[in-house]
Amino acid sequence: MRPEQSGYRGPATIDIFYDELRFTIKPLYEYELSGLVVAKTDYTLFADNDVAAVVPVDLCIVWGTNLERGIHNHPSTDFWQRMRWCYWQSEVPIDATEIANNHLVVNDERIRDALTDLSLGDQVRLRGQLIELWAHTPAGEQRKAYASSTSRDDTRGGACEVIYVREAELLRRGNPISYWTHRIGLWSLGLWSCTWLVLRLVRRG
């Protein structure tokens, strides 16, 4: 199913806070996306900047003929993310208008947990708004942190969707082995980080 985008009727701006950080959301359109997760980056353990506090997860999602043809299962196909971009390579054609890298803005711990729990191969439905996200400095200045694409047909810089997620629904769990491998990897990374921090504190003492 192609993502659904419709007119937004609501507050012109929405302020959200994380610890002492303030952000302003400027909704552009209502948005709903259903598809399959082919790449995921979780910034909850290692944030790349302050904005990651409210943009904790990036999901690269395919839908439509890309999903129907099973391009994600082809041996030559590979998806990966780096520096908030999604990349892919494959020997089979991939429709670039039926894949999107999504920066997910969250202001609800339940939704945050649901998104961080997702794994590759999961099918998911996201509902919310396409937005601009503005970050405020302690001095009262503001800067535009992200601005969403509002077209599914763009494919280059600025083509990512920035979604203020109001609902996140797992439609179908992907490969259970991949899911638990991913979860164990996160737990191991968290344990290693805690151990490293404790050792540094002990050495300083």
Relevant terms:
205 residues, alpha+beta, OB fold (Dihydrolipoamide Acetyltransferase, E2P), five-stranded mixed beta barrel, two-stranded antiparallel ribbon
Description:
The mean pLDDT is 88. This protein is 20% helix and 42% strand. It has 2 domains: 4-174, OB fold (Dihydrolipoamide Acetyltransferase, E2P) (Beta Barrel); 175-205. The protein has a 5-stranded mixed β-barrel. Strands 5-6 form a two-stranded antiparallel sheet. By secondary structure, the chain is an alpha+beta fold. It contains 3 helices and 10 strands.
Write a short abstract of this structure.
With 205 residues, the protein is α+β, with helices and mostly antiparallel strands.
Topology, element by element:
Elements: E1 4-7, E2 14-18, E3 21-42, E4 57-62, H1 64-68, E5 78-82, E6 85-89, E7 99-105, H2 109-116, E8 123-136, E9 142-147, E10 161-172, H3 176-204
Parallel strand pairs: 7-10
Antiparallel strand pairs: 1-3, 2-3, 3-4, 3-8, 4-7, 5-6, 8-9, 8-10
